[in-house]
Amino acid sequence: MDFFALIAARHSVRAFQSRLVSAEQVRRIVGAANRAPSAGDRQAYEIVAVTSSDRRGRLMRAALGQRHVAQAPLVLVFVTHPERNRERYGDRGAQLYCLQDATLAAAYAQLAAQALGLSSVWVGAFDDAEVLAAVDAPPGIGASSLLAIGYPAEVPEATPRRLLEDLVHQETLSNIR
Ligand SMILES: Cc1cc2nc3c(=O)[nH]c(=O)nc-3n(C[C@H](O)[C@H](O)[C@H](O)COP(=O)(O)O)c2cc1C
Q1: pLDDT value at 1 more than 90
Q2: What is the distance between the alpha carbons of residues 118 and 120, in angstroms, rounded to a whole number?
Q3: Which residue has the CA at smallest separation from atom 11 of ligand 1?
Q4: How far does residue 75's CA lie from ligand 1's centre (Å)?
Q5: pTM of this prediction?
């Protein structure tokens, strides 16, 4: 599928079939994430691929009971690894760049999942400490996002977007509304 058609076809799915995501699909998804740019190419994030129902249940509870988190056969947990950036970039690297790195990687993973015929939803509403505990994260690691991935069990509705005329500003923000 053409790249722009792929982007247009992606919609969040919050109901998943029990059909599993294969190991090869997981490898291709995280492989795409691994191609994302990062500050200084330091990739100051980690990805945890969670498939066990026990951990998916813990992640669901961490995500304020959002059932699609436990229902999806695969949950990718993107966490920041600030210390990979601190030496070179100081606080800006440890606070901002690692979050941007992790976010970009998750965005690439989400589109890769779509390209493989899978569906997904990005989950950001969660208790950080509970997410980190669910994946046995050591101190110093920060929660960034969850991607719940699987075969869709619903046809999602397309969501609206802002008009480009409202979103994009020519040269200056002086006309912001
Ligand atoms: C930072 C962020 C946090 C989000 N958190 C959640 C969430 O906790 N639960 C959920 O069901 N969807 C969540 N979403 C998905 C958005 O609701 C969804 O992407 C948005 O409504 C646009 O719909 P679309 O993905 O179908 O284009 C999140 C998306 C982003 C980017």
Answers
A1: no
A2: 7
A3: 123
A4: 15
A5: 0.98
- Residue closest via CA to ligand 1's atom 12 equals 123
Contact assessment for residue 62 and residue 130, using Cβ atoms and an 8 Å cutoff: yes
Q: Give percent helix, percent strand, percent coil of the chain, each to the nearest 5.
A: 45, 15, 40
Q: How confident is the model at residue 48 (pLDDT cuts 50, 70, 90)?
A: very high
Q: Determine the pLDDT at residue 106.
A: 99
- As a whole number of angstroms, the distance between CA 10 and CA 121 comes to 10
Say if CB 76 and CB 135 are below 8 A apart. no
Name the H helices within the chain: 3-9, 23-33, 53-62, 67-71, 83-92, 98-115, 128-134, 164-167
Phi, psi (5° rounding) for residue 146? -115, 145
124 lines ligand 1 (CB under 6 A): yes
Task: Kindly tell me if the per-residue pLDDT of 177 is higher than 90.
Answer: no
Nearest 10 degrees: Cα torsion 118, 123, 127, 130 = 10
